[in-house]
Amino acid sequence: MHNHPVTTNKILEGVRYEIRGDLAARAHELERQGYEIISLNIGNPGLFGYRTPETMRLAMIENLGQSEAYCHQKGIFPAREAVVMQQQSRGVMDVTADDVFMGNGVSECIDLALRALLNSGDEILIPSPDYPLWSASVALNHGAPVYYNCLPENRFQPDPEEIRSLITARTRGIVVINPNNPTGAVYNRNLLEEIAGIAEQNRLIVFSDEIYDEMLYGDALHIPMATLVNDTLCATFNGLSKVYRACGYRVGWISFSGDRENAKDYLHGIELLASLRLCANVPGQWAVQTALGGYQSIHELTSPGGRLFQARQAIIDGVSNSEFLSLCSPDGAMYAFPAIDTNLFESFDDQLFAMELLEKQHVLIAPGSSFNVPYNNHFRLTTLPTGRDMQAVFERMEEVLAAMQNTR
């Protein structure tokens, strides 16, 4: 017999998603061998005992009988109208249910938005570090990701002048992730106004990923990008996965605002793609109206004494007690992005550190280089374990780092 290996599409060479890559596969092997792994690589609240609010579960169950047929390609009306009401409550007054598309999580919405837009070689400005799905979706849809830096020395805030310098004739849009994944940075109004102005001057679509909008700590304030963008198209991405602890429901949405008049063909293209996949998961959509209109239990978790607040504080304390680590304290989201002082090591590799931590201490983290950054001395971990468990994680990290230092 002749061997004819099945080759992959060359476009996959530009795609990385190491959050579920080799390290996660090795963690799964160790779990099958009987080891307990503390998985801090993915923001998956249900794994750590966070429950979806009961009212959302009941709304879904009560409407199962209406969930057996395909719904409209944009989603069920009550869910889309709930998004409109939320946007209006935030000062985005020009949105109607026709401007909202429901998807199987924000992940699908990102893919639909970019697939309808990009021709080969078109460029999208993406923050570095980024949530790697944005880079992957641009590459998979034949575009080119162009990174603007959110540097640790600038507290992970972008530089508007650098953004301006990166714009070319091929630039079609700019991605803003706020509150930020992986760094936990929250952008202030002045910065967002500058980015909005740059987008409007250059007719760029603003892709605003706001999935962590209500996950804020201390005095941090989330400014919806759609309140600042008027003279170009703004696409706001949100969903039930994080704030509402409903990852498995796979419910996300895009809300379009700003200049839709000049984007009619593009929006029609998104509707065509939405039609081709028939519709998003219907049962989960019935939870949207209850989620957005009901009591916002996330604030209990992020306030002093709340579980997310306490875990974040445990990370801050763990870093401050460490011989090796430093941190820009996260103001939002469910992540922290600590740095390792590489001056203490002859050489340092974040992938090697992550594997050592997994093999020796059974803690799974995401190496910083997974997030499309030019340095390799950071890592991302979630704030989902209890404060006590997080304290134990940092004790284990310290052991691994001390052993790596001694072997230099």
What does the model show?
This protein is of the alpha/beta class and 408 residues long. It has two domains: 10-51 and 300-406, Aspartate Aminotransferase, domain 1; 54-293, Aspartate Aminotransferase, domain 2 (3-Layer(aba) Sandwich), CATH 3.40.640.10. The chain has helices at residues 22-32, 54-62, 77-89, 105-115, 132-140, 160-166, 189-201, 264-276, 282-285, 288-293, 298-302, 307-320, 350-361, 387-406; strands at 38-39, 100-103, 123-128, 144-149, 171-177, 205-209, 233-239, 252-258, 325-326, 335-336, 339-340, 363-364, 366-367, 379-382. Helix 5 links the parallel strand 3 (123-128) and strand 4 (144-149). Helix 1 (22-32) packs parallel to helix 13 (350-361). The longest helix has 20 residues, at 387-406. It is globular. The relative contact order is 0.17.
Summarize the structure.
With 408 residues, the chain is of the alpha/beta class. The chain has 14 helices and 14 strands. The protein has helices at residues 22-32, 54-62, 77-89, 105-115, 132-140, 160-166, 189-201, 264-276, 282-285, 288-293, 298-302, 307-320, 350-361, 387-406, and strands spanning 38-39, 100-103, 123-128, 144-149, 171-177, 205-209, 233-239, 252-258, 325-326, 335-336, 339-340, 363-364, 366-367, 379-382.
Provide keyphrases for this structure.
single chain, 408 residues, alpha/beta, Aspartate Aminotransferase, domain 1, Aspartate Aminotransferase, domain 2, 2 domains, seven-stranded mixed sheet, 14 helices, 14 strands, globular
